[in-house]
Write a structure and sequence with these properties.
About 40% of the residues lie in helices and about 20% in strands. The protein has a 5-stranded mixed β-sheet. The model has no long low-confidence stretch (mean pLDDT about 95). The chain has about 150 residues and is an alpha/beta fold. The protein is built from 5 helices and 5 strands; from the N terminus they run αββααβαββα.
């Protein structure tokens, strides 16, 4: 079986996840892309910033909005290493992100294909296209190694 290389945005998200782990944060990374160009990179930082909302997706959304000078990120793609939680899924909706690509599923905290399934709710204002599984093994291994080291 031929293994294809991961798309560059997912590789960058995994690099961000590694940076998070090196900083003692849960290893999750996010990248926002518009018209094929990376406009924001971020990793989890709630511990370092003492901010429970400092998830990789939220930080990337904030940075992309500042870069574009607008709150709507229409036409943007979000690449993230773990299925977004309910808070991040809500931010994705409000930012009007076009597509979400995530590596590993999160049966406990995810809110896209698990839990609240935010994008499937009838009250959801915007539904991005969702693609899961690219880089799943590597993202899952980063998370497992991080938590294994702390037990």
């Amino acid at each position: 079986m031929t293994r294809w290389p991961l798309p560059r945005p997912m590789q960058a998200a995994l690099d961000q996840a590694r940076a998070a782990a090196a900083a003692g944060e849960v290893p999750i990374g996010a990248v926002l892309v518009k018209d094929g160009e990376v406009i924001a990179l971020a990793h989890n930082a709630p511990r370092g910033t003492c901010d429970p909302t400092a998830h990789a997706e939220v930080l990337a959304i904030r940075a992309a909005a500042a870069t574009l000078g607008q709150e709507r990120l229409e036409g943007c793609d979000l690449w993230v290493t773990l299925e977004p939680c309910a808070m991040c899924a809500g931010a994705i909706v409000h930012a009007r992100i076009a597509r979400v690509y995530y590596a590993a599923s999160d049966p406990k905290g995810g809110a896209v294909e698990h839990g609240a399934r935010v994008f499937e709710q009838p009250t959801c204002l915007h539904r991005p296209e969702v693609y899961a599984g690219m880089g799943e093994g590597e993202a899952a291994e980063l998370l497992q190694a991080f938590f294994r080291a702390r037990r």
